[in-house]
Amino acid sequence: MRECKIQKNTSACPCTYEPCPRKGICCECIQYHWSHHELPACFFPAEVEKTYDRSLQKFLSLYKNSE
């Protein structure tokens, strides 16, 4: 099994929610957000990520409106 590169992942993670216990552990982050019908911060532009609206609807609206 591959080793998780938590330190490398953390330095590249755009999530602004500081007390997040999953920061840098991408597989846990994706599982957590998907279980809440959301996507992680790395799927959103910075200005949208700061709103903490990580819903699928928000994600789709961003790309639907960009066409």
Automatic annotation (TrEMBL):
Taxonomic superkingdom: Bacteria
A Pfam family it matches: DUF6485
Protein name: Cytosolic protein
Organism of provenance: Atribacter laminatus
Biological classification of the source: Bacteria, Pseudomonadati, Atribacterota, Atribacteria, Atribacterales
